[in-house]
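G., before I forget:
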Amino acid sequence: MERVIFYNYLVWHFIDIPKKIIKGWSNFLYFNFNYFSIPVLIMTLFSHYRRYYYPYGDKLDPWRYVEAFVFNNILSRFIGMLFRSIFIILGLIIETLIFIIGLLFLLTWLLSPVLSISLFLFGINTAF
Amino acid sequence: MLNFDLKNSSIYPALRWSFYFKIIRVLKTASFLIFLFLVPLLIQELMIKGFSDVKSEFFLGLSAVLFSLTYIFWVQELFFNSKLKRPRLKTTIDEALACLNKYNLDKYNLAEFLSLEAAQAVDKALNYSKVNSSCLLYFLINDNDKLDFVFRRLLLDKESIKERLKREMGNSKDNNLESFERAVIYSLKTAQKKEHLRVEIGDMLVALSQCDNVFKKILVESDLKSDDIENLTWWFENIQQRKIKRRRFWDYDNLVRKGTLAKEWASGYTITLDRYSTDITESIRKSLPDIIGHEEEVRLMERILSRGQISNVLIVGEPGTGRKSMVYALAEKSLLGQGLAQVNYKRIVELDISSISAEFNNIEEVESVLNKIFEESAAAGNVILVINEFHNYIGQGFRPGILDISGILVPYLSLPGFQVVAITSYEGLHRYIEKNPSILSLFEKLEVSEITTRETLMLLENLSLVLERKYKKIISYQTLREIISLTDRYMPNFSFPEKAMEVLEETVIYTASAVKDKIVLPKHASKVISRKSEIPIGEIESKEREVLLNLEELMHRRIINQEEAVREVSTALRRARSDIAIKSGPMGCFLFLGPTGVGKTETAKAITEIYFGSEKKIIRLDMSEFQNIKDIPRLIGSNFEPGLLTTPVRENPFSLVLLDEIEKANLNILNLFLQVLDEGFLTDGAGKKVVFKNTIIIATSNAGYKVILEALKEKSDWSKVKQRLLDYLFKNRIFRPEFINRFDGVVVFTPLSKKNLLDIANLMLSKLKKNLEEKGIDFSITDSLKSKIAELGYNPVFGAREMRRVVQDKVENIFAEALLKGELKRGMRVEVNPKDFKLIIK
């Protein structure tokens, strides 16, 4: 029975829990992607900021056309792109951080039997 | 013989090692606490002496040892809880039970499906000297404090149950393996029903409540059933699951509640809308509500909102059926991204039209603001607008103080980015919205039904926890059960779950403020429902039995003769109220046939007084007023007038409906009563369901009274008269057989004999005598006076109807005059001369 328990422990430590860590890790990665709305921001990168749109009018009015196009619609799209780019970059930086932290956590878990025993032995040596 | 071998099951290692892991847990806590104690000392030493000092090294080393030990113990505990306690199952409970049903008993070891806690109870029971279900129950409740929740809510004393089980275990002489095996199989069936992977302690408790004789007896003594244990374990397991779910912060469902930072940038600003609205999505983000019921309707709502073209929903349902909670469910799905793609991550915003109309006096200004709001919603592209009580703003016309938004709304409703979820009632739909077909055609109707009593109980259980925290009270399970049963019975014109939820909250407030009891009990709930429904529930519950058993005697205090009528009414009422009747209609419905003035109406009044406590509880309709088909709206109401029948019944559901001279009503009107008599409800002119289940319906008719008189003249056998009378009614098409058959009893009232008339005269004069006694005057009623009153008061055509008037004119008047003149004084004894109706003072 003890051998069965030991075998179960190995399966649990090196297969079951890593699977769960990967699942939680991917949840964080996916959540961050969604939190910064990276796909939506990329898809709407050049869209008007907050749908802030100036109509060009029905009649041909060159000045109004220029005013709407240059001063308003282009500006709205530019501000939109600026904000979106900032958030996309910020989101990707945090995404990278989550990836690194997750990886470190997984490695620490996998190596934890060795690390904990080493720490124990180090403690014994140092204290006594 | 079942294949039940605990020692060869996969849970057995956990069972054997459970004690070791208990020690591990203690060691983990101890090493962690010592480590916490050492850390400040270590920091202090390091700061003062640095790393080179021996003492510092000792503290550092010891801290490292304790930290590593804490970690090792924690990992072991985690391993025990997540792996050893939950071994992988080779098959499912479904499969094992299917084999069992095919009498393939050996294929699976049923002990494999036990959870650790259940296995511990089974192990102890099997090692006890006499194995039976009672000892399994004993060890189950002895070792699992978690089950205290169930016993506490049921107001059961766990210790006394344990004592009783212990006595039972001591008394049993032999093993009762049969009862033990039955408990195992029932546990598996319960786990299968609840879709559990393995048998949890709650499943085993439910199973034992079904098969252990001692537990069954305890439950019967406490007026509880196995279903109650099942409900309680569901409640307990639901709380546990929610706690576990909340703790798992890394789950996507928990993470996604944080929302998004920038998704809204793709959508437009809604400045005006934000000012006059409540963001439902934002409010549920803070705490996700537990929504129960209406799953199918919510799915349908999602499908409608996902359509390409017209995607507006009109939720139609009675108030209190949980119409708004469906919107909350939609908002929750949308927030978590669990709905359809077109609905996910949208803002569900409830528009507050009343605050707009309150802020602006001018109707044009209100319309301009609304126009702006609709424009913003359409432009934003991520808003689903909710308009509650939609009928208040549609089809009302233009009058002072009335707002009709249909003209502004219609152009937006067909826009693809504009979505509305409007909420209305059936009355609102028929009365206002249907008048405007152009707006109705832009909505997809979604009808909401009442949720079941089981679902209501689940909602009450969740609400209980909130109320308990708020008012510092404990709500017993029986109170929840009582609230559902009483509101179902006495408040039929309101809908579940709201009526039950309101009553629960009021009951807790009542207990906290007026009674100041620690536990909320069923008696508190019945008091609150009594006050709300104006029905003396507590009194009825206790008095009712007495009244029902003595109905004949009580009725004969007011009704002379009419033995058959009194007997039939009494037996039918007893049958109806003992809940053994198969019929689902009113409490009782009777047709009283007989000549005029024989006591039909009086009997109805007597029943009302005896059963409902007051004659005021009678709803009397003269059916001769309903001779034409156009009188139907007067009877059942319409959008413009209340119904003479339906409105009083809705307001006073616990009353007697007296339909006088029913034969004079139009045949189509009689057809309306077929459903009332059969099913116990009627849909009124405004489309609302009116429930008659708490009413007694009595229809009276003197149609065919000549048949009775002839039969009396011929001295025919009375048992055949009723059939002759019914034949006459059918032959002359006065009533149709299907109408007559729906009554619980057709009672034929016999004409009054001379002796009956004397008794009635005596009854009336006795009332006068009683009144005079209060003034200290002794009125002696002579036989000759009774005979004279009977003679003057009886008419072969009108029966004894005139007798009351004769008593008034001939007797009461002379007493009144004499009292006013001062001729009658206290202590006098007086008689009335029947010849000239003058007072004889003695």
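The longest helix of chain A spans residues 62-127. Residues 48 and 77 of chain A are 4 Å apart (CA to CA).

More on Monday.
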